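Protein in question kept in full:
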Amino acid sequence: MKELLSPRDIVTSGLCIGCGSCVAQANLPDTQMDFDAYGQLKPQGPNAWYNRESGSFTRTCPFSPGSRNEDYLGATLFPTAPHVDNALGRFQAAYVGHVSEEDFRMQGSSGGMVTWVATELMRQGLIDGVAHVIATEDPQEDGRYFRYRIARTEAEIREGAKSRYYPIELSEVLSLIREVPGRYAVVGIPCFIKAVQLLRKENPMYRERIQYTLGLFCGHMKSARFVESFAWQMNVPVDQIEQVEYRQKDPSRPANWYNAKLTLRDGNSVNRDWWHLADGDWGAGFYMNSACNYCDDVVAETSDISFGDAWVEPYSSDGRGTNVVVVRSPLVDQLVTNAIQAGRLQLEPVDARFVEQTQAAGFRQRREGLAYRLTWPRSGVQPRKRVIPDDKTPTAQRKLIYRMRYYLSKGSHQMFRVARNLQMPQLYIDWARMTLAAYHGFAYHQGNYEEIKNRYNQLKGE
């Protein structure tokens, strides 16, 4: 395997997550992140840059086998952490609960903790800005529904509440951080936070200016086609969508009953439960970025604090939303502790096994599933992960599930592209219904034909 890599090496090997770190470092006017044919963000630029192998890129790309892994970064960033866990990494404390002050909880998809911590850092005068994701004002004009931006007021931070299952990238905000001195916090999924930490390790300027990182537990990155599929299945024109809400909150319904809502330019809106969407089973992996098959970090192990949903009872049935929180930075831990004592946060301490249980499916996919996938032959750059390749431990059924999930994900990109080019949405929808019904039948019912048939009819609305 080559010692030095180029952006092209990572992209053509299916290991590019689209974080934009390489574009930010290039700092060239004709280099940018843009959508590929499958609706995923990828670096684009002159061949001289795109094909150039470099030590800096090899060390800072989060999926490069030449970059430092999460164990090394965690030990460097949090050397005094009292807890070291195989699933959670290094941490000070873990909690389950929600924000009890103001309306943080109701404004967020879960318990409101991400927005609260970002706001508290600003209230305490510890930062000047927060790099987070917001909805674009005019997605049809902008070309994207969501982007990173720098929030510099509490009101702007609150605009970043809610989950966004959409491709985003860091190049623009990293460029702003380079151009405008200050103290910043960055909110991101595990691989994005890892990219930031690798960049901080490489570049003293980023190390000085990015002072806090807020991580989000992650299942996988979706492509932009997920929104278009919503539109197809809800029978609305894609070019009329003005706002996308992936998880419309309803306190009267269980938190894990996801409901997607599209608001159109004329003010009308449509919505549908994910369960009734042909590609609405998150675990099946529709539109998943191929790099996600080679990630082993579920809980953003290199962040100062990270947040997820409490997907265990009684919390998953509470429609108001509940967070699990893993705190790693001693300073952030003190902020959280003080707020708990003041009654501003309603958090109860939990252990690592509780947090792992709330993300059980994610850990199976990223640990046992990853170990199995690492035994498959592949071309291009070979991932170097913390798990050992293993095709002995998974049962025959688990192997089948991992295989189905891999090919379903790959097929969803290809089938959607064909249907989109032919302007035949039903071609993709019928394929997705049949594929998801088969996946459910094998994943939950050992291939029982009647169960597959029943699920297919449910997806057709019969």
Summary: The mean pLDDT is 95. The CA atoms of residues 84 and 90 lie 4 Å apart. The chain has two domains: 7-222+287-363, 374-459.
